[in-house]
Amino acid sequence: MTAITTYPCPTCQKPATWTDNPSRPFCSERCKLIDLGAWASEDYKIATQDTPFSDELSENQH
């Protein structure tokens, strides 16, 4: 018998299975939609030292 491996859901941290889980890596469709909503409302940000189009601004100033 094979043990079922679980991973913490990225949204709620409850155990989520990878196999036969249409919402993976989330534990449920609800957690999947919560995460999608966070992306849509720009709650997740990736840090950068550059501002958008900063290379274009510096070229135009010369």
List the topology elements.
Blueprint: E1 6-8, E2 15-17, H1 29-40, H2 54-60
Antiparallel strand pairs: 1-2
Task: Briefly characterize the structure.
With 62 residues, the protein is of the alpha+beta class. It is built from two helices and two strands; from the N terminus they run ββαα. The protein has a domain at 1-40: Erythroid Transcription Factor GATA-1, Chain A (2-Layer Sandwich), CATH 3.30.50.
Task: Describe it.
This is DNA gyrase inhibitor YacG. By secondary structure, the protein is of the alpha+beta class. It has a domain at 1-40: Erythroid Transcription Factor GATA-1, Chain A (2-Layer Sandwich), CATH 3.30.50. The chain has helices spanning 29-40, 54-60; strands at residues 6-8, 15-17. It has a two-stranded antiparallel sheet. Strand 1 (6-8) and strand 2 form a beta hairpin. The longest helix is centred in the middle third of the chain and has 12 residues, at 29-40. The termini are far apart. 6% of the residues are buried.
**Class derived from helix and strand content:** alpha+beta
CATH topology of the domain at 1-40: Erythroid Transcription Factor GATA-1, Chain A
Can you tell me the CATH class of the domain at 1-40?
Answer: Alpha Beta
Give the termini distance in whole angstroms.
69 Å
Please identify, by name, the CATH architecture of the domain at 1-40. Answer: 2-Layer Sandwich
Characteristic terms for this protein:
single chain; 62 residues; alpha+beta; Erythroid Transcription Factor GATA-1, Chain A; two-stranded antiparallel ribbon; 2 strands; metal-binding; Znf_NHR/GATA; zinc
